[in-house]
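Hello, quick one for you while I still have it in my head. A protein chain has come my way and I'm curious about its shape. Can you walk me through what the tokens say about the fold? No rush at all, and the record is pasted right below.
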Amino acid sequence: MLTKQERIERLLAHEDATWHWRYWGLFFSLVAVAFISYQTSIYLPLILFAVYLPQLCVAWCKTKVLLTFNSEPRYRRWVYSDFIVEWFIFLLFLCLLAAHHTGFLTIWPLLSILGVGTIGGLVFSRLVHRVILTFDAHHVTNRMFDEAKTERRTHQKTGS
């Protein structure tokens, strides 16, 4: 099993290797949305799809990296569940926006459901990482990873 620092280094290497998914995927998705929206009038679900799909691809790649850190079935189940909930929230948003577009939902129920879904997804992700920390002391949470990225940027700017 890897230490926390080794895991952070692998995640940073993964981040360096997959930055193009985030930016080029977003760029080409927005170009596709601009082309399709010129043809039809369903902007909101398409824009959500274009903006969030590259992030889902990056999250899937990060999930695959996290799965290499620990082969315990309980660890794998929790890591998979975090990604699966993120994917289902994305599908929920698309379905709700399509329901709004067809006139099935008005704006206020749509916004409240989207808000509850967003907050629920964030809370579930934090809960998953806390549960994983109870049985894997070397697990790297999103907050720890963000702090490591910030520290790396700081060291790169100062030249240390």
